[in-house]
Structures are given as C-alpha cells and as structure tokens.
Write a structure and sequence with these properties.
Blueprint: E1 2-6, E2 16-22, E3 29-30, E4 35-40, E5 45-49, E6 54-59, E7 66-68, E8 72-78, H1 98-107, H2 125-131, H3 163-177, H4 190-206, H5 212-226, E9 232-235, E10 240-243, E11 249-251, E12 253-255, E13 258-260, E14 263-264, H6 272-288, E15 301-305, E16 325-328
Parallel strand pairs: 11-15, 15-16
Antiparallel strand pairs: 1-8, 2-4, 2-7, 3-6, 4-5, 6-8, 9-10, 11-14, 12-13
Length: 335
Amino acid sequence: MEFELRLPDVGEGIAEGEIVRWLVSEGDRVAEDDLLVEVLTDKANVEIPSPVSGTVSRIVAQPGQVVKVGEVMAVLEVVAPSKTPAAPPDRGEALAVPAVRKLARDLGVELSSVRGTGQGGRVTERDVRAAAGRGPGRPGKPAPETAPGTPRPDEERIPFRGKRRMAARKMSLSKSTIPHALLVDEADVTSLLGMREALRGIGETEGVRITVLPLILKAVAAALERHPAMNATLDEERGEIVRYRRYDIGIAVDAEDGLVVPVLRNARGKSVVELAREMERLAEGARSGKLGAADFSGSTFTVTSIGSIGGLFSYPIINVPEAAILAAHKIVTRP
C-alpha cells in the first residue's frame, strides 16, 4: 500500500518549506519515526520523521524545491501490518515533533492535555501557544520561484535558495510594508567598558565570555520597559497594535549559509552573565543548525551588532512584524 508523505503543519503559521536535503534514497527501508528529510522554513531547519514503516519508492520534491503544507514530498510503500493484535495506544502520549515538545516544556504546557489540530492529530506549535495563552505568529507571503537561467562563460550563477532566499523574502516584505525611519546617535560607553572589565572575572569563573553585547541587551530590555511602544508588533488582520510585557529579543547571527535571528527569551529577567551564556548557546546553535523553529519565533524586538564590519553607520531592516530594530556599531576613541 502506498503512503504519500506530505509536508506537515509544523506550527507558527508556517505555510511552506524548502527541501534542503533528503536523508534517505529511493529504495531505502525506513522505520516509523526515522528521519527522512530536512526542510527549511521561515523559522529554522526542521527534520521530518516518517510516520510509517516501509520503503521509499519515490522522492517527489527535490532539494531546492519549495513545498506548501499538505503537498506530497515522497511516496512510501508501507509494510503490511502484522496479524498479531497490536497493543492499545498510549492515550497519554501526544504526537508532536521535537521542536514542538521543546516549546511545550519552555512554556510549561502538558502536551497530553493539548488537542492536536495538525495532520493525524499531531500537536502543532500553534496548539501549544494557544494552550499557553499566547497567540501564534502570522505566515508571510509565499516566496516567488525564480526561473533557471543558462550561465554564460563570463558569469557564475549561484542557486538562490535556502536561508539566503528566506532572508531576502523577509527583508523585501519588511521594506514594502513597514515605513522605515533611521535615527543615528552616539553614546559614551566608558562606564560600560569598565563594567565589562569588572564582570570578566565572574564570567571566567562561570565559564562564559563577557562581551559588550549582553550589557547592551540588558540596557535595551530596561529601555523597552520604559518605552513600550518600541516593544510591539502590528496585527494588521485585527487592526491592533500589540504591546508586550515580555522582552524576547531577537539576536541577528551571521551563519555560514545566511543571516538568522534566534530569540533570547526574558532578557529583562536575566543577569548579564545569564544573557552572555544564552547568547553563546543561541549563536552556536544557529551556526550549527541545531536550533528548532521555536528558537526563532516570538521576538518582540531585535538587536544586530555590526561593529566588527566597521563603517560609520548602517541602515538596519526591521524584523517583521516588529516595530523597531537597534544596530550597535563599533566602539571608537574620541578625543
């Protein structure tokens, strides 16, 4: 019997995903829950497990192809079920992908109490956030397909896909829907540098490197509490401005295959050392591709640090659907 493997609803308003690579080949035998394919969504890379045991008879969606939720990615020949009566299913175990399970743990939601609305009754990120009293994110517009071209001898054509295409789509959406206004200013950070030196010894004891950025995040979280209009998003569908009493700050990370923005939760309630440790975890996980979709969703404000690039100033692009973004530049000595 044939089984069509379709792109499941992984939550957080994801409408489509791009096939990154297949972890199996046609003709391979797979067991239930074996990982089959790596898919890139707006949020992160997700590995899709097999819901059945069988043989991969045909791979439909090739690497680089964008697949919408519900579309067929592959066809499996299902192993005939045994005639031995199966044990009754454990009703206490909910169906959910690892990223959704992690989100449930982070939000204190008991998965077995959540009614799944995904394919086959799977619990999605939207279900978990609804159970926790937090609204799901909104899907972006689908990315346009680019027609392949024939390279000339004097040019090089690089496939425009993966995180590079996802980032370009979000940046285009931001510039076309959010009126950007740039404010450039300077601040005397002499005291900040002194504080960093004082904390370095504590950081060494705790096994974490103290840089200027966690100190900036601490200041940003305090400023957002005083100016809640900056810690907000626009819900266009309901015609409402949403101001948050949480301070989940996106941190722009330059990964090998593109810019990503993992989210540092509860920045207001963390110490400088805790911020530095969490930044290290997020940056390392983003560059190694080990973060889940939940690590990239729900930010209320974004900070990007481009001091290492140099230059006088830059014009950062707001992370949709947030209200603002802060770019921290290089520290220089003034006479």
